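Run log, item B.
One chain of 426 residues. Sequence copied directly from the ordering sheet:
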Amino acid sequence: MKVFLDMVGCRLNQSELENYARQFRQAGHTLTSDADSADLVVINTCTVTSAAAADSRQMIRQAGCHGARQVVVTGCWATLNENEAKTLPGVIQVIVNLQKDELVPLVLNLPRDSLITQPIVWEPIPGRRMRTRSFIKVQDGCDNYCTYCITRLARGASKSRPMQEVLYDIQSALEGGSQEIILTGVHLGSWGYDFTPPSHLSILVSSILAETAAPRLRLSSLEPWDVPPGFFELWQNPHLCRHLHLPLQSGCEATLQRMGRRITARSFAALVKRARTAIPGIAITTDIITGFPGETEAEFEESLEFVRGIGFANGHVFTYSAWPGTAVARLPDQVPHHLAKERNARMRAVFHHDSVEFLHQQQGQVLEVLWEKATPTTEGQWELSGLSDNYARVRVTAPCNCHNQVMRVHITGFSADRLEGELVQD
């Protein structure tokens, strides 16, 4: 059977998709690069914003209308809207999040253990999902109560994966040629909290660095309150990428309180300062929500000025979406959508300015870059594009195809969204 895998949403969804790919291959099936040629399509959905929910529905409809014989859907949107998902074209099965780790055995009617015990190396998913980096799910669910978040309702309580399972998946990815491992989860920093006795993400990271030969290890998103004293000492190991994504959501103290965030603007700024002192050249990125209920113009300006003062390397800006079931959905003082969108644009302008400044700071530096794309030129050269360890897009021209290799680059210039450089000859 030919299987096509696709998704909307976060790195955790990507990690789950990669696990499905490996299990379908273990069961003897073939992965294909498009839905039209597939006997089975599996779509991992998202509902973190209204746009993500709409994209999920559209992806399912397109698969069903373009000839897919069978469509199986899972993920956050499908979990919260199971009945609607079942009515979409081609959908034969909806597997909710509580069962999604058993999706492949459920679809194929196989014992779950039959797919876990058969070792098979990681391979990139065919089509537009092909990657040189591998996303490893180490945790799922969340025990936080941010008042705007629908993901906790869709994913359930926090649950950590055992360390040996994580190490097994990483080793499989490395044997399959992956050059970068990205640890991901709904609440990544809570890994180990539910163990007896409790553990911490720093223990997992230390074990991965000690017990595997991963060329690069990257953390996805960490809540600021999960970063303990001494955490940044881990970056003394050069294999740990100099990038931290620390969701802020707002730079206004009053808005943070209404959001139920366990952080203040002042403590966030202090955390960033400690990170930059301990890890020279680190990229700090974040998430911001505009138009949160009750956000006045003065509160938005406070958030804007705080973000400007931090100087993030980049960030995501989301316009607030009211979701039924969240604590703030019924609050008064909902911000008009057009005003929330206008604030979104103003915030994105600040991020763009600061991201250019971050790129400017990289000039003259030597960065390690993983080449994710190699394109032949008419001059017999290769245009290489990839990510530095501190999460900057880099482009060079080289005499050979160096796809999926980590190489040192001397940065000589930059454009609005990427660095330019020359390969360092060792």
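Observations after the first pass:
- The mean pLDDT is 91.
- Residues 38 and 311 are 46 Å apart (CA to CA).
Flagged for discussion on Thursday.
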